[in-house]
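note to self — DONT lose this again. spent like an hour looking for the file last time. sequence + predicted structure for the chain T wanted, 175 res
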Amino acid sequence: MAKNDTPKEVVRLVDYSKNLDAAILQVEKDGIKLKHKIHNVALSIVTAWGKGQIKDQEPADYFNKLASAAGYHGKALANWISVKLPLAFSDENDKWYVPVDAKVNGDTFKSCRDEPFWEVSPPPKPTPFDAQALLFALLDKNQKKAADPSKLKEGDKLLEPAVVRSIREMLAGKE
């Protein structure tokens, strides 16, 4: 079995215990600088793509490299890419790719520039649509209005009780 040729990252211990407040402040400043640098590199990719300096799958290759290099910022960057850019993500390859008809322009650049990646919230998670529950709710509403005609509004139409009964039986059979 071959050994892994990747060298381990060596972390040199530096003792900040004498001035922890200053060390923490420096970490905050360095973190802000890193966020800004990642954002500027992403904007540079968008600019080069828009000017035609990089073509075909090159923009996606650069964004894949940037997301990998971004470390902990990678997830926020991925959310930003999914919201702001005409790139698609391949779950199979775990990489971004450029769809055939994808293009960027000045408006894309302005949108990306004006909303940095750390401010973009992820798209909402899809919620499953329960058609059966919706149908039961509509049938219940129909039944309540049929029981109390004063709840009927102008233009409301009710289903016949036999139709409601057969729909309920059909839905109950699919449970």
